[in-house]
Every structure is written in structure tokens, then in C-alpha cells.
Design goal:
The chain is an alpha/beta fold. Helices cover 47% and strands 18% of the residues.
């Protein structure tokens, strides 16, 4: 066994599952005593038993026509299946109905299913029905077939059975109506008003033949007078192999007749299909601390309620959940929460949680009070630690009411919950993409700023040197012109060779690149000077290098080093030759008249100063191309980020529109305002005053809806015109801290505060009271289908009418797909939301412990007394209230 199996074994031993679970039931079947049974051979009972076990049924009701099933058969099936076997009858109920002649007569009937508590006396009840229910024979239909049925109303039958625990279910309801004389369905024979009245008052459930019929009894359809009734479908089997082929699902803790009848009377405990299980949930916990010492608890995947008197331990358990799952605590509450946790766990306490992740993997999460990390164990025995809750891969939200209020008034917190509605995993992916794209933009921008600075410096230097060269007076004497050109050529050759040496030494380490680029753009002038032969040697060496590189890379690497050394040696020779040339040139100048000497010396000075003009011009042009390329990449990266930003906003808009429709009946309006939350530039001013000023002054000149849109426009403008004055300021000022500034969307929440349901008086959430804020925001908290939602006393700031009318129905629906846990003192919230598990805590003042736990399925449930005492103040308080209300139960 691995660590998870060991933990599960201990959890089941120390805290066995005691919550409501879904069970398959088949409540309409026949046995061989029915006249229309199709398989009456001696092997039929064994086949019935086999089918019940194969179908994993928890309850089966046998309903033969006008007769109770054989006791011996039921006892044998019950003993060999460990299934709840219910004796029942399928009766014909004669009713007033319109016949073929359009007259009202009593030759029509429908089928009614009755199921009797096996612990009662079904024979006595059936005898009572026969004796007092006026069981009669009547001719029905065009052929006058004799049918035995009850000549009484459903109300009369209910009074007859009063005091028993009989299950009453009208059979065969369907939404495709037939002629009454051809149907045995209640909805085809009764007038709608009579049928609905009988169903509302006397029926535990309705048997339907298709889902379309069941949909009309969800409490929202005017056609059925908003009747909310459980609907089941059954196999109506007339041979063993048909049993269990069409089953319904009911929720009980342990199957019994009383629990089944109670469940049937609660529509949310009955489903035609197997209900879903949340994708990720907290399976159970072990807390070994001071106040909670060696406490084991197993939770339902659906809804769990923690109840207790003040200080008994329910909030302590919630804080342990928050601790082991790493749920964030608001800054203002951290000290108080930490002190509470230290009291609960003591100096060496530890919490272990077994969770089921969304990917289906079970993992153990362990954390000691002294740890800043989480230890994760898997079934295979592997163990590792993580430092952040996100690394756990388990998305849980644990909220105190102060956190809900914070969510109501803080825009960024609202968007966090909105992302949960839109799909946290997908939104996290979008956020990660956006962050990565902004980092790419920032990287390119840093390069572009540096490149731009160097480009501007070179451009200014080239312009200055060019102006000096252009301003030099033209020489008119041919001999002086020749002498000056000779000096210019020699000076240019010397500068070119120096550039050649610099390039080849730089590129020597990059031999695998194309060597022919080493000399690209280097222009060697030819002249009748002593430098020609030396430079020719370098050029020959480069040609040889190209030859070697194309022949073999290994030889090329050796040749690169040889050529680099050769060019370096030649560069020294070039300097020596140029120095000798310059000395002879100076000697020739001294032989000239003074005015010509002055002219040539000025020419020499300018020539020396501008000797690198060609090289600098080339470098500037290359840098311009590189800068333009960087700006183009910035623009493209901005375009990608803008697309991601728009995709994020659209996902939020779509999710919000769907949410708005879902909660419109709760008096709450929501909508997303894209790019409504501007980044706070003031907080960055201390980093760069000039950048902040540029950011505020320049961006408004571009008309994008967000900073990223405007940055894209800035870079696009620079690709067209690098000297654009306004855009160029972004490459001159230090605005690096502002590249990552991105507007966020805002979730606008409004509540209808009108006391008249027909009127509309919506106010924004920041204009509401604390209770109204919570009322407005609570539906948003319940909307996502993510990980567990655990809330400490959600009734705070909410009135009981709102809890009963709005919060409870939402909880009943959402708990099907999302695990929830609530701590509460509110009876309406706990009882009406029908949590699958209620845990009652007690304390001796030093330690807290679980007193009793279970599913509150009926009055005789083990948890009933604790619920009455803790939430209602005891039975005396309940009776007093009922007496004053004038309600008789």
C-alpha cells in the first residue's frame, strides 16, 4: 500500500463516510403473479436477483396488478441482494373523464403505484383498501372489457392510508397526450387543475416516460401551476431481463423505506440520470494540533455544513483547511488569522489533506505550522515540496465574510472572481501569455533604446564630420589637389585596414558563420602608394579564408586564426607605412610657401579628423537597419499582446453575459467594461520622472483603447518615420518601467434596491450598504464550477428572506458540480440547502471535537437533534414559533 491508500484506510476507520449519496432505484416492476408477466418459469426469481445485482440497485419496488407480490419471493430477493425490496401494487383508478360520446362517464382509469413499508403490514393495508376503497369491476373501452379498479378519489385513498408510510406515485405520465380511452396516464384523463391539485397534495413523486414531461414539473412552468415535484422513471418490467434497464437516482445516507419516501418528496434529491460529481474536491483531513487534536474528517464531494456553538471548533476547522490548501488571507486579517491558527495547532501542529485534483489524481498535501512550504505525496510513494499554493494544482477558495466584502468593493478582486467564472485555467493561460509577451516587448524595447542612443550619437557625429569636410575650402592648385588626394587616400586606407582588423578579430570566434560577411561593405581604394601591396596581402588572405571555409569547416577554423593573426600583423605594417608616408608628406609641405602650407595643414587636420567618416557612416546605416528591425519586432510583439488583451476581454464579456442571464432574476446586473482600470502611473514616477512625463504626455496623442494599443501605434509610426518627433520621444526618454502597464477590465455590479419587484432602481456596488454589497456579489461567488468553495458564515449581513428565496436555491443547484463547505448558525441556510453532510462540533473549553455528523435525511436522522438544538434553540423554541405562526405539522 502507498501513502494515499494508508490515509484512505485510516480515514474510513476513524471517520467513516456518513453523508448523503446517490442510489439507483427502480420503483415499477412486476413479478410472475401478474397476468401479463412474460416469463413465469421457475428460474425467474434467480434471474431477478441476478439483474438487481448487475444493475447495482439499492431499492426495487414490485407493483403487481391489483395484488401484492408473494412474500416468499420478496424475502428471497431481499436476502440475496441486500437491497431494499418494497411490496407494492399497481391499481386502476376510475375517474370522471370525457368519453367518445363527449359525455362525462366513469369508464376511464389511470394507473397508480402504491408502495408499502416492509416493516408495516402491507396485507392489512391492502385489505383495508379493498374493504373501504370500493374496489369494483367495470366495463371500459369500446369493447366493454371488464376492469377491476378503485371507485374513489385520490383524496379518499390518501385519507384511507393516513398514518401509514405508503408511497403514492401516479404512473406513465407523458407530454404527448393520447385519447383517454387508449391511455392509462393521469395527465390524459384528469383535467389539468384536478390532476395538479391531486399531485400537489397526495403524491410523493410522478412517474414519467420521458424527460420532456419531467421538465414541466421544475416549479417554473405556468402550464403546471409552477408545481415542483420529483419525477422518476422505471423499467415497468414484465420479465426479469427488463428489470433495472431504466432507473432513477435518489439521495439518502443509508437506504431505508422512510429515507426513500422522504427523498422522493424533495425534488432536488431525485434525478432521472446519475448526478455529476465535482471534478475536484477535498476528500478528507487529519488535524493533529492543540485545540483540534487527532481529528479525522471525511467530506462529501458536494455540500458540507459545519455547525456549533461559539468557540466549539467549526471556524478552527475552516482555518486548517485554509492553511493546508494555501488560500490567501487579506492583509488586514493576517495577524488575527495567524494567532487563531497557532492556538488551534499549537507550536508543532500539522494538517494533512487528501484531495482529488481536476486531472483525476489523488494527492496528499501536508503542512506543519512551522513550514512555509507544502509537502505533496502521491500513491506511488514519491514526495516533493512546493512553495506556492498555485503549485499544488488544486483550486480552492476559502472565504471569511470580510473577504466577500473585499471582493465586492475592490475592482481587482472582482476581476479575479470574474476570471473564475470565465474559466480559471484558460484565463491563467491567457494571463501567462500576456505576461510573456510583455516581457518580450520589454526586452526588444531595451535593445531599441540602447540602439537608438548609439544611432543618434553616430548620426550626430557623422553629420558633424560631414559638415567639416564640406566646409573645407576647395584647393585650386592642381599640384596641391593631387597632394591632398594622395593624403586622403592613404588616410582612408589606413582607417579601412584598422576596421578590417577589428572585424576579423571580432568574428574569429564565430567561424561557423558566413566568413564572406567579414569584408562586406569594406571598400579598399586603389592608389599608387606603398600601402597597396600590404593591403593586397590582407585581401588575398581573406580570399583564401573564403576558399578554406567552403572546403572544410575544421580547416576553416584553423585558417581563421591564421588570417586573423596575419591581418593583425599587417595592420602594424600599415601603421608603420602610413607613419612614414605622413613624415614624407610633412616634409613636402614644409617646402611650400607659407599660404599653401597653412592651407594643406588645415586640410590634413580635417582629413585626419574625418578619416573614419566612411566607417562611421556605414556603422550608422547598419545601426539604423538594426534599429528599424527592432522597432518592427516591438510592433509585432505589441500586436500579439493586443490580440491576447482583446481575447481576454472578450472571454470575460462572454462569460459575464451568460452570468447576467443566469442571475437576472436575483435583481443583480453585471457587465464587463473593457480597459476601464487604468494603470497607476503615479506609483512609477519615482523610478523615472522623465519616463512618467513622456508616458502621460505622448500616449494620449495615439488613439488606442489601452496602453498596449497605443504602444503598437507608436512603434508602427517609427517603422514608417524613424524621426517622427512624438514617437521618437519613446526612444529618447527612459520609459522602461511603463512597458508593462496594461489596463485591466472592470466588472460592474449593480443591485436593484427597489422594494417593488416590478420596479427597477439599480445602484452600483460602491453605493450600497455592506449587506447589499454581499447580496449583490454572492451570486458571482457561486457561479464558477471550479474547486471547492468554503465560506465562513455566509449568512452574515444577509436577511433570512434573501437567504431562503435566493441563496438557498443557488446552493442547491451549484453543489451538484462544485464542492462547498459552510460554517453557519442559520437554520434556513443549513436545513433548506440540504447539505449532504452536517458536522456538529462540541468543546470542553480546551479542545474541540466532532460530536455528531451525518446527512439530515429525515426526522429520525442522528444529526437531527444537534440541528434543532444548535440552529433552532431546541424543540421547545421550534414549537413556540410554530404555535405563534399557526402552523400544524
Amino acid at each position: 500500500m502507498g501513502p494515499i491508500s494508508d490515509f484512505q484506510a485510516q480515514l474510513q476507520k476513524r471517520a467513516p463516510a456518513s453523508f448523503g449519496c446517490w442510489h439507483r432505484v427502480d420503483l415499477h416492476n412486476h413479478t410472475p403473479i401478474s397476468s401479463d408477466y412474460l416469463q413465469k418459469d421457475p428460474g425467474a426469481p434467480d434471474r431477478l436477483i441476478e439483474r438487481i445485482n448487475q444493475a447495482h440497485l439499492s431499492a426495487v419496488m414490485f407493483t403487481d396488478h391489483n395484488a401484492l407480490p408473494a412474500k416468499e419471493l420478496l424475502e428471497e430477493v431481499r436476502a440475496k441482494t441486500q437491497c431494499l425490496i418494497i411490496p407494492g401494487i399497481e391499481l386502476n383508478m376510475f375517474v370522471d373523464a370525457v368519453g367518445d360520446d363527449r359525455k362525462v362517464g366513469r369508464q376511464r382509469f389511470y394507473h397508480l403505484l402504491l408502495g408499502f413499508d416492509p416493516s408495516d403490514n402491507p396485507d392489512f393495508l391492502w385489505t383495508k383498501i379493498v374493504r373501504e376503497g370500493k374496489l369494483v369491476d367495470r366495463p371500459v373501452g369500446p369493447g366493454g372489457e371488464i376492469i377491476r379498479g378503485l371507485d374513489c378519489t385520490l383524496s379518499d385513498l390518501a385519507k384511507l392510508l393516513e398514518g401509514s408510510q405508503t408511497i403514492i406515485i401516479p404512473a406513465h405520465l407523458h407530454s404527448n397526450h393520447s385519447r383517454p380511452e387508449k391511455s392509462r396516464s393521469l395527465d390524459d384523463i384528469f383535467q389539468d387543475a384536478l390532476f395538479l391539485k391531486s399531485a400537489r397534495q397526495h403524491c410523493d413523486a410522478l412517474e414519467v416516460t420521458d424527460e420532456a414531461t419531467a421538465a414541466y414539473f421544475d416549479g417554473k412552468h405556468d402550464e403546471t401551476e409552477r408545481l415542483h415535484k420529483s419525477c422518476v422513471w422505471s423499467s415497468d418490467s414484465h420479465k426479469p431481463d427488463d428489470l433495472g434497464t431504466r432507473t432513477a437516482y435518489v439521495q439518502v445516507q443509508s437506504m431505508s423505506f422512510h429515507a426513500l419516501k422522504t427523498a422522493l418528496r424533495m425534488p432536488h434529491r431525485v434525478h432521472l440520470h446519475e448526478p455529476p460529481v465535482p471534478a475536484e474536491y477535498l476528500v478528507g483531513m487529519h488535524i493533529n494540533g492543540y485545540f483540534l487534536n487527532d481529528l479525522w474528517i471525511q467530506l462529501s464531494p458536494h455540500c458540507n455544513a459545519l455547525i456549533a456553538v461559539k468557540g466549539a471548533g467549526k471556524t478552527a476547522l475552516l482555518e486548517c483547511m485554509r492553511f493546508v490548501l494555501g488560500s490567501a488571507v487579506p492583509e488586514s486579517k493576517r495577524d488575527a488569522v495567524q494567532k487563531h491558527l497557532e492556538h488551534v495547532l499549537g507550536p508543532s501542529g500539522k494538517v494533512t489533506a487528501l484531495v482529488k485534483r481536476r486531472d483525476g489524481e489523488l494527492q496528499l498535501i501536508e503542512r506543519a505550522i512551522s513550514d512555509t512550504y507544502f509537502t505533496i505525496r502521491t500513491e506511488g510513494g514519491s514526495q516533493h515540496t512546493v512553495d506556492t499554493p498555485k503549485a499544488l494544482g488544486f483550486d480552492a477558495q476559502i472565504l471569511g465574510w470580510h473577504e466577500i466584502e473585499d471582493a465586492a468593493v475592490t475592482a481587482t478582486t472582482r476581476m479575479m472572481y470574474m476570471d473564475a467564472v470565465a474559466g480559471r485555467a484558460e484565463m491563467d493561460t491567457i494571463h501567462a501569455q500576456l505576461t510573456e509577451q510583455i516581457a518580450v516587448i520589454a526586452g526588444f524595447q531595451r535593445e531599441a533604446v540602447l540602439a537608438n542612443r548609439e544611432f543618434r550619437r553616430l548620426d550626430a557625429e557623422v553629420s558633424r564630420l560631414q559638415r567639416q569636410r564640406d566646409a573645407l575650402r576647395h584647393l585650386e592648385d592642381d599640384n596641391l589637389v593631387t597632394l591632398a588626394k594622395e593624403y586622403e587616400r592613404a588616410s582612408s586606407q589606413q582607417a579601412s585596414h584598422s576596421e578590417l582588423k577589428k572585424r576579423i578579430n571580432t568574428q574569429a570566434a564565430r567561424v561557423k558563420q558566413h566568413i564572406d560577411k567579414l569584408v562586406d561593405g569594406i571598400s579598399i581604394m586603389t592608389a599608387d602608394t606603398e600601402l597597396d601591396s600590404v593591403i593586397d596581402g590582407s585581401m588575398s588572405a581573406m580570399s583564401a579564408l573564403n576558399h578554406w571555409f567552403t572546403s572544410t569547416s575544421d580547416a576553416a577554423e584553423v585558417e581563421v586564426q591564421r588570417v586573423a593573426q596575419s591581418v593583425t600583423d599587417n595592420d602594424q605594417k600599415v601603421h608603420d607605412v602610413f607613419r612614414q608616408f605622413r613624415e614624407r608628406y610633412q616634409e613636402r609641405i614644409r617646402q611650400l610657401p607659407d599660404d599653401q602650407q597653412l592651407l594643406l595643414r588645415e586640410h590634413q587636420r580635417v582629413t585626419d579628423e574625418t578619416s573614419k567618416l566612411d566607417t562611421l557612416t556605414r556603422q550608422r546605416d547598419e545601426l539604423r537597419n538594426s534599429l528599424t528591425s527592432l522597432i518592427e519586432r516591438c510592433k509585432d510583439s505589441c500586436a500579439q499582446a493586443v490580440e491576447t488583451l482583446e481575447r481576454r476581454a472578450q472571454k470575460r464579456v462572454d462569460a459575464t453575459e451568460a452570468l447576467a442571464k443566469a442571475i437576472s432574476n436575483q435583481g443583480v446586473r453585471v457587465r464587463v467594461r473593457p480597459y476601464a482600470l487604468s494603470p497607476n502611473i503615479q506609483q512609477f514616477q519615482s523610478l523615472s520622472i522623465s519616463g512618467a512625463a513622456t508616458f502621460r504626455e505622448v500616449l494620449p496623442g495615439f488613439k488606442g483603447p489601452s496602453c498596449l494599443h497605443e504602444l503598437h501605434d507608436v512603434f508602427e509610426t517609427l517603422t514608417i518615420d524613424l524621426s517622427h518627433t512624438q514617437a521618437q520621444r519613446f526612444l529618447e526618454a527612459d520609459y522602461q518601467p511603463y512597458v508593462g502597464l496594461v489596463e485591466d477590465d472592470d466588472l460592474e455590479v449593480e443591485l436593484n434596491v427597489s422594494k417593488n419587484p416590478q420596479a427597477e432602481q439599480f445602484r452600483k456596488i460602491d453605493q450600497l450598504s455592506a449587506g447589499q454589497r454581499c447580496t449583490a456579489f454572492f451570486p458571482i461567488l457561486l457561479s464558477p464550477d471550479g474547486g471547492p468553495l468554503i465560506i465562513d458564515q455566509p449568512e452574515d449581513n444577509l436577511d433570512n428572506r434573501h437567504i431562503a428565496a435566493t441563496i438557498v436555491p443557488s446552493l442547491v443547484v451549484k453543489k451538484m458540480t462544485r464542492q462547498m463547505a459552510i460554517t453557519s448558525h442559520n437554520a434556513n441556510l443549513v436545513v433548506m440547502s440540504d447539505p449532504e453532510l452536517i458536522v456538529a462540533f462540541e468543546s470542553d473549553g480546551t479542545t474541540g471535537h466532532i460530536d455528531v455528523q451525518g446527512f439530515f435525511e429525515a426526522a429520525d436522522s442522528p444529526i437531527t437533534q444537534a440541528v434543532k438544538d444548535i440552529l433552532d434553540g431546541g424543540e421547545a423554541a421550534l414549537r413556540q414559533r410554530l404555535l405563534k405562526y399557526g402552523i400544524h405539522v
